[in-house]
Write a structure and sequence with these properties.
Layout (H helix, E strand, L loop, with lengths): L19 H9 L3 H27 L10 H6 L6 H12 L8 H17 L7 H19 L16 H27 L5 H15 L2 H15 L8 H27 L2 H9 L4 H16 L1 H14 L11 H9 L8 H30 L6
């Protein structure tokens, strides 16, 4: 009998997860060139941070007492006193001064509805009822004319309430239109309806948003019967929604194409109807696939609300421009625009954070 000697192979130890310090050292100081570049960038960032600290905090003027003369005397630092002086104009525009508590409550109401809407445990019929009630309360507060509130036309609206209601209604209405258009375009076969959807999506995406706003603001009244007028703000909201819908429809269609065909076949084998298959199986998966892209479109169009100034809508950015144009505070527009940028950043960062949280909840196996 023949024996063959074999060597015993010891199992390799399990790989250890690299610590964050080791990962950073390898990433930024892995070689001499990388370490030199990192050091130069750190010096540059440190110098920039010190300059911003000196301008924005150390040498800045925060009190409005004696401003703007105090701000001009300081010269080197920022003049944050202009924010306190122009805060009402920035936030509420030309809305009557004595009634500005109404847009303040309206803004808080919308923000509260945003906070409630991101809670998955509240996604039921009560939230679906709460939103129309909240929008009705918003309209009542802003328009007035009832319950002892003096009437205020939407031509006098301005600032943050206009930006929020334009983004809210425009994006929600656009998303509601985008879903059926995406389903029609993704459906097999042809037909006049699908051809019309394809033509609409391609046409709107080929036209600048500015041109669509001009068309809604200037051309629509020409096609209305004599004596019938539509609010300019309403026309802009509708145009904004129609333009948003074209972009969102393509994003949703991409998600529908990413859902494996076997999902539909399995649902058909179980005897599920087409409506149940689409709403309970296909759409949730499709929206999960394209959630980052959807939020990217939301953020882009939320910032695009600032261009409504070209059609005479007094939004947040327009209010900031008017505040910066005050001759008494000339030269301190940087502080005003930084404040407005912080407001836009707060809303956009919240949308981005929530999309990451929602995607992690819908797809636990994927991490950003």
């Amino acid at each position: 009998m023949r024996f063959v000697a074999t060597a015993r192979i010891e199992p390799a130890p399990a790989p250890r997860a690299a610590s964050w310090a080791r990962s950073l050292r390898k990433l930024f100081f892995g070689s001499f060139g990388s370490a030199l570049t990192t050091a130069l960038l750190l010096l540059l960032c440190g110098r920039l941070a010190w300059a911003l600290y000196a301008w924005g905090i150390r040498d800045a003027v925060f009190s409005a007492a004696g401003a703007p003369l105090t701000c001009r005397a300081a010269q080197a630092g920022a003049c944050w006193a202009v924010i306190g002086e122009k805060l009402r104009l920035i936030l509420f525009g030309a809305y009557p001064y004595a009634q500005q508590w109404r847009p303040a409550i309206a803004v808080l109401l919308l923000v509260a509805m945003y906070a409630l809407s991101v809670q998955p445990r509240l996604w039921n019929w009560r939230l679906a009822v709460a939103w129309p009630l909240a929008l009705g309360a918003f309209a009542l507060l802003m328009f007035g004319g009832m319950l002892g509130l003096p009437p205020v036309s939407d031509d006098q609206w301005g600032g943050l309430p206009v930006t929020l209601i334009l983004a809210t209604l425009g994006l929600v209405m656009g998303f509601a239109l985008a879903l059926p258009m995406a389903l029609v375009r993704h459906a097999p076969g042809g037909g006049i309806v699908k051809a019309m959807v394809v033509a609409y999506v391609e046409l709107v995406r080929a036209v600048p948003l500015l041109a669509v706003l001009f068309l809604a603001s200037v051309m629509i009244p020409l096609f209305l019967p004599q004596g019938i007028d539509v609010s300019k703000l309403l026309r802009v909201i509708v145009a904004f929604a129609l333009c948003t819908a074209a972009y969102l429809a393509e994003v949703v269609r991409g998600g529908l194409m990413a859902v494996p065909r076997g999902q539909r076949e399995a649902a058909a084998a179980l005897g599920l109807s087409g409506f149940v298959t689409t709403t309970r199986i296909v759409l949730p998966q499709a929206l999960t696939h394209v959630l980052p892209a959807l939020v990217n479109v939301f953020i882009g169009f939320f910032k695009a609300t600032s261009i409504v100034v070209v059609v005479g809508i007094f939004d947040l950015m327009t209010a900031a421009k008017r505040a910066a144009a005050d001759a008494q505070w000339e030269g301190f527009g940087t502080e005003i625009y930084l404040f407005v940028a912080l407001i836009y950043f707060a809303f956009c960062a919240a949308m981005s954070w929530y999309s990451a949280r929602l995607q992690a909840r819908r797809d636990p196996g994927r991490r950003r």
